[in-house]
Protein: PF03932 family protein CutC
Amino acid sequence: MKVEICVGTLEAARIVSKLPIDRIETCIALEQGGLTPSKAMVSWIQNTFDLEQHALIRVRAGGFVYNYDEIVVMRDQILELKDAGIKGLIVGALTKDFKLNLEALETWKRTAPNVDFTFHRAFDSIDDWKTAMDQLIKMGFKRILTSGSDQSVAHGIKRLKELVTYANGRIEIMAGGGVKEELIPELKATGIHAIHFSGTSKVTVESETAFQETLLLPDENKLTTILVAIQG
Structure:
């Protein structure tokens, strides 16, 4: 089973580069669910560490129903990042009735035909997930990141098993969203192909200044604990 860690800062990339993992998802603004990283950030990680890097493409927070302009900007973000040497891209787009936005997805896929594409947790908002999975397979997506059609993997265990069974080796199923040490045995039992987590904790920075923020920063203890459970 593969291990993917979500990396939202340069320091997080430095920390996880020393850990026994398979790949990273690079983004920024984890506090908003993750947004597209800059080309400079992606290139620095690619040139500094021996990591298989995938990058999130998400132009803004607040759901996955995008207008035309946003779809074009995300296409251009893909164009920028695909030449940085990354292995894959993570995308997702829905229609107003919570089906796949096939036009957007096909546009993005054509923009970078030689990289792996992962469909992210927008998948968990889709009711007809079997049709959606078949459509993603037809488009050539490599994997689906999902919490099992629920808010977290803790509540989506049953659906994760169903997803793996229905996929039947045609597409990888990667579990993510609220991954904790105590959930690892149950997640392994579903037959999933990979686990995705960030291993972060909330940290207040610039305390008592005009720039005070609460950020999700890497927690080495959390990261290590979850990895030990996965390897056990």
Summary: Strands lie at 2-7, 23-26, 53-56, 88-91, 116-119, 143-146, 172-176, 194-197, 200-205, 213-218. Residues 2-199 form a domain with the TIM Barrel fold (CATH 3.20.20.380). The chain has eight helices and ten strands. The CA atoms of residues 137 and 171 lie 6 Å apart.
